[in-house]
Amino acid sequence: MSDIRIATVEDQVLLDKEAKYCSYGDTVHYIEPPRIFSRCEGSYVWDTEDQAYLDLQMWYSAVNFGYANPRLNNALKKQIDTLPQIASQYLHKGKIELSEMIAVDAKNKFGLDGRVHFNVGGSQSIEDSLKVVRNATNGKSLMFAFEGGYHGRTLGASSITSSYRYRRRYGHFGERAQFIPFPYHFRGPKGMTKEEYGSHCVQQFARLFETEYNGVWDPKVGQSEYAAFYVEPIQGTGGYVIPPMNFYRELKHVLDQHGILMVSDEIQMGFYRTGKLWSIEHFDVQPDVIVFGKALTNGLNPLGGIWAREELINPKIFPPGSTHSTFASNPLGTAVGLEMFKMTSEVDYGAMVMAKGKYFLEGLQDLQKRFPIIGDVDGLGLALRCEICGPDGFTPDKATLDYMVEEGMKGDMVVDGQKLGLILDVGGYYKNVITLAPSLEISYPEIDLGLKLLEQLLVRATQR
Predict the structure, then answer these.
(1) Topology at the third CATH level for domain 75-346
(2) Are 411 and 421 in contact (CB under 8 A)?
(3) Which residue from 277, 271, 322, 327 is spatially nearest to 121, judged by alpha carbons?
(4) CB atoms within 10 A of CB 412
(5) In CATH, what is the architecture of 9-68+349-463?
(6) Separation of alpha carbons 424 and 384, rounded Å
(7) 1 has pLDDT over 80
(8) Is 0.90 topped by the overall pTM?
(9) Dihedral of the CA atoms 248, 251, 257, 263 (nearest 10)?
(10) Using one digit for the tens of pLDDT, what is the confidence trace for 223-239?
(11) Predicted confidence (pLDDT) at residue 454 exceeds the cutoff of 50
């Protein structure tokens, strides 16, 4: 095992400049010294010493289609040579056609007419969805959201994100959401199947509407004080927690009974991460609003947006200029988004991702059998989780996972004579979950390589 890594002279000069000139608020220094990267391709990134790292988190699922994807890169280059810029008050072909693709797809899948509204990223699109929801519900500002949920760090988005630490320094911009327990079966009550626990969580939520004294419902007029329930169908930062398949169907029944909208946050799990365009598709429900971002442009351009039902967003209820952003629907982003949709329509991405995910999950399950510190593994498509615990296989062990992440970033593991590093992401309620979001283009040999590197890290962690 190697000693603590020392930055090169060139890197240290840059790190000294960062220490003096850069806000630390827009990044996180997970390891010391922080790595400086110089190039990327496929499932790999290289640092300034040309050390390769296999990336199993792909920029928090923003680069679903691999680093430097030639087809998507070329779409961006082509757009630069034709219409690279245009004010968002004007129209261009890419915006209209991308909106059509998303809206027609939603009509085919959910049977609902709707429209698409763009912004520059996930958090900003969450803000737009809050405006649409408030506007459509006569200004109701209260929302439900889940414990463990993450929706962004802007003031509005942080108000529906369960972590207080994202709000602590800044207070509230409006009302904070009421946070409802998510069916996290591994850490739920014992003696229930996953489906029984999902139903139990829905029943506990439904209790809030039994009488006026439960605090959210006025039975005399049949109205809730709450406008919408913001859900991540698969929790992201919360640790890639996958609920039972009956959960959202039962939850949506309660919401529909009480006139509460369902907003599906697909920012991290959208664009085939779970084997479907939208992760909510797995659960047989019709969302009222979908929020998307990240992988729409494979990380090449900050573009996100929302799809909302026609009743919520048509020009009579949400007229021109209702909310606006300078760079929204910019032609570079929409060009890449269009090409992404064309690319994924030519190959059965759903079947491909589900097959690779099954293969990867089986490898994780094999590691779980051999390493007691792996308490839980689960996955849907290529959204996979591996929960690191103490020797009892249950007590959260953040320290061990932190150690594994740091060891992976040393770049000193060897597989078949190749020296490699491994990039992992940390998530979960207790920050003890490896949240795996590899490139959807990852090869089976690269999955095998990732499992071998994980095994080396587990050996180091158990022998230290």
Answers:
(1) Aspartate Aminotransferase; domain 2 (3.40.640)
(2) yes
(3) 327
(4) 16
(5) Alpha-Beta Complex (3.90)
(6) 12
(7) no
(8) yes
(9) -60
(10) 999 999 999 999 999 99
(11) yes
